[in-house]
């Protein structure tokens, strides 16, 4: 009877141990699945972030290019207008040879 009791105890312990091992394996599998899902989510977020950064960079480049184009256009217009404007008369009244011809007074 003691043998049977020991056998029963041993088989019960083995069954419990097997159950615990099975639970451990299932828990590990669940953890692995959760980790993989988390990793995929993180990678997708990172890819989306990089995509948005690239789009912003493209927008910034487009704005800079537009600004350059506008600046060049305005400069060319200014240059064209500057050529068409009459030059100031430096040799007019009081400015012979481009210098002021004020009275020269020597103080003693």
Automatic annotation (TrEMBL):
It comes from the Eukaryota. The gene is Ccdc34. Residues 1-10 have a biased composition (Basic residues). This is CCD34 protein. It comes from Hypocryptadius cinnamomeus. Residues 1-26, 44-68, 83-108 are annotated as: Disordered. Residues 1-100 form the Coiled-coil domain. The lineage of its organism: Eukaryota, Metazoa, Chordata, Craniata, Vertebrata. Residues 11-26 have a biased composition (Basic and acidic residues).
């Amino acid at each position: 009877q003691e043998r049977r009791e020991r056998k029963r105890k041993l088989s019960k312990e083995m069954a419990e141990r097997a159950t615990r091992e099975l639970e451990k394996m299932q828990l590990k599998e669940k953890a692995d699945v959760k980790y993989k899902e988390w990793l995929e989510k993180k990678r997708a977020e990172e890819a989306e972030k990089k995509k948005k950064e690239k789009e912003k960079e493209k927008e910034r480049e487009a704005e800079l290019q537009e600004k350059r184009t506008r600046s060049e256009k305005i400069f060319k217009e200014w240059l064209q207008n500057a050529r068409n404007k009459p030059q100031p008369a430096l040799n007019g009244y009081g400015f012979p040879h481009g210098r002021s011809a004020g009275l020269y007074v020597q103080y003693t």
